[in-house]
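Journal club prep — side note

Before the paper discussion, L.F. wants everyone to see what a predicted structure for a comparable chain looks like in token form. Sequence:
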Amino acid sequence: MTVGEETLESMSLASGYNDWILKRFKRYLHGDILEVGCGIGNFTQNLSEYGKVTAIDINKEYIEGLRLTNVRSIYYGLGDIEKGRYFFGNNRYFDTIICLNVLEHIKNDVEALKNLYRLLKPNGTLVLLVPGHEFIYGEIDKNIEHFRRYDKNSLVGNLRALGFSITNARRLNLLGAVGWFISGKILKNKEVGKVKVGVFNLLSPIFLFIEQFIETPFGTSVLIIARKTQ
């Protein structure tokens, strides 16, 4: 099992956090929904409650595994958002696109953002979740092949330059950012690990409850809701 696969498996155990993230953007889900970079499906099955879901990933083994467990008529297939290649061709467009913790793994992220824009219908919505704050980039990021972490304001500027309007943009998960900084930057740990996820599951509910009402000054993630204006 690769480090990336181990990380996805570990994060699948953070079901409470994944549900909390979904609540932050579920009101924007509708119509034809595309999930870009579905991985092992930590969010995918839940998306089908809100529309017709197509899910793509660059990893053939992930797609084959998800097809075997598909019980909600989700359409799975290979897709490369950086190169603009998808199993459904280049003449299909979507009302909503979900891209969660994917952009940081793509070398040419600007080209990927352009392709996300192209795949949206007019007035379509992009839900984008990325790791926040370059200053906490550490050994874990390197080990799971993150090219970068993101500054919220810079990413918002890049999206606007491509033609998106911004509906909402906020930092999330203060507790996770502190843990990520200590573990990956100071202690030089290279893995997220199931034990760390277990500790996070125990400590996170109170922090996440507070974050429903306020935006923290920094967080492990940046969530942006953007709309295609043309």
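L.F.'s comment for the group: Residues 3-228 form a domain with the Rossmann fold fold (CATH 3.40.50.150). Keep this in mind when we get to the figures.
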